[in-house]
Write a structure and sequence with these properties.
4 domains; alpha+beta; 462 residues; globular; 4-stranded antiparallel sheet; Jelly Rolls
Length: 462
């Protein structure tokens, strides 16, 4: 009888690729490292008996009940970590080498610049969607980003939608200040319906003067988002002065800029709190905070959008078995993530860690806490401990623990036989008794002075 209902590792990988619409930019999907990371790959059997032992009994309740679970043969720590790293890398970067991924090219991706080899396209809104406005009400209308804003170098950003401090709805706020700004809009073609350069309209409020809020643009022809031009700032220039109230302003993007990103930030730390709202494109001819009218836009989000996406993910990734409490947690994380794409990415990562994704059975949760484990009190007697290291990959023997200060000449013998041996001044002493031995900065086989010392049977029972 097979118990535990575990899915094979390779099926977990294929499930993610197929259900989340992986699209390869090459005729053949080439990967590297999967066999080493998860212990399974087509045509790479470790023996004629496949990857599993039919009689395998895992440690824990399944094994204690004398039940077998062949798929659990591959559940050691390196393979569990390798599988989760590879799956989450696929979600975050596409088929990439980043953070334990299985792409065959060197890691060059960022959170908002995914792999050119291929990526998961399930339910994604295009990162190239033309920006027109942002209400900061989010995909589920509970606060968030209407557009796919990105950080410097297309990495994470500090922008967060929060409740309006002196009104209703949600507004943009920066919990952490950044002198250069790290909140950039999608690319905007700098031409209104008449072919003239855009002005960017917005609302601004700060709790004190010179709170540090700034807004401007970046020339999109540049490779990286690190060359912003601030148009209006709440600083010594007095470009933005709100006196604790919402003001309405606009700035003109130069006509010579063909394409641009809007950049927003809070440059003052500690400073006060700066808030932005209703950032939008419009026609105009000047940069000013006088006589500007910023119209309210209808948010593009939908009520309960996150619930609908999580339910669909649960159907595709767990056959609908994801429990209600887990869905509630994931929906909340989705709505807190920012944009629809940010929420989708986080929801996928969370489901990939659920019990339902890794098994085929119906899970049953309980509110009963496990008994707290307490170590038995020390007897005060000396003892010897055997430390078991679970290693993944090759091992350069003789370099983890090496002889050092040994009266029997073991260190000199070690130097004479091993060309890669390290000098004593580069070794760290870890021995407090017997004769001194050391470890270097790599993982390897154990060789100590203690190897040469007599050991008695009684030593292992103390």
């Amino acid at each position: 009888m097979i118990s535990g209902s575990l899915r094979e590792p390779i099926l977990k990988v294929m499930s993610l690729l197929k259900s989340m619409d992986f699209v390869s930019n090459f005729p053949i999907i080439a990967t590297k490292g999967i066999m080493n990371d998860i212990g399974q790959m087509p045509h790479e059997f470790v023996s004629v008996f496949s990857f599993f032992l039919t009689e395998f009994k895992p440690y824990g309740r399944v094994g204690d009940a004398t039940l077998v679970s062949p798929e659990a043969t591959l559940l050691d720590m390196p393979k569990i970590t390798g599988l989760l790293n590879g799956l989450t890398s696929l979600v975050k970067y596409g088929l990439s080498d980043c953070q334990g991924g299985w792409g065959f090219r060197y890691c060059a991706e960022t959170q908002y610049r995914t792999s050119k080899l291929g990526e998961l396209n399930f339910n994604k809104t295009s990162s190239q969607t033309e920006f027109t406005f942002d209400t900061f009400e989010g995909p589920s209308l509970v606060g968030g980003l209407d557009n796919n804003w990105v950080g410097s170098y297309f990495g994470p950003h500090n922008g967060k939608a929060t409740s309006n401090p002196i009104g209703y709805g949600h507004v943009l706020h920066f919990p952490t200040a950044s002198w250069n700004g790290d909140f950039y809009s999608p690319i905007i073609h700098n031409a209104d319906s008449d072919g003239n350069a855009y002005v960017v309209k917005f609302r601004y409020m700060s709790d004190i003067n010179r709170a540090g809020g700034c807004i401007g643009y970046v020339d999109a022809s540049r490779s990286y988002l690190n060359s912003q031009q601030w148009a209006l700032c709440d600083d010594w220039s007095n470009g933005l002065v709100s006196n604790g109230n919402w003001i309405q302003c606009q700035f003109l993007v130069p006509t010579e800029i063909e394409n641009f990103h809007i950049v927003v930030g809070d440059r003052s730390s500690p400073g006060g709190d700066a808030y932005f709202d209703d950032i939008q494109l419009a026609s105009g001819t000047e940069t000013t905070c006088t006589g500007v009218l910023v119209p309210k836009k209808d948010p593009p989000g939908q009520l309960n959008y996150a619930n609908a996406v999580v339910d669909r993910l649960a159907t595709l990734l767990t056959a609908g078995r994801l429990e209600a409490k887990s869905r509630e947690i994931i929906v909340h994380a989705f709505n807190e993530a920012g944009s629809a794409n940010d929420g989708l990415r986080l929801a996928q990562e969370l489901i990939l860690t659920s019990a339902e994704y890794h098994t085929t059975s119906i899970t049953k949760t309980t509110t009963q806490l496990r008994n707290e484990f307490n170590f038995p009190p020390s007897t005060g007697k000396s003892y010897r401990a055997v430390i078991y290291l679970m290693l993944s990959g090759g091992c350069d023997s003789f370099n983890l623990i090496t002889p050092h200060t040994c009266s029997n000449g073991l260190f000199e013998s070690y130097l004479g036989k091993l060309k890669s041996a390290k000098n004593q001044d580069k070794l760290l002493s870890i021995c407090q008794h017997l004769e001194s031995f050391n470890h270097f900065y790599s993982i390897s086989f154990i060789q100590t002075c203690a190897n040469k010392l007599p050991l008695q049977r009684i030593d292992f029972f103390q």
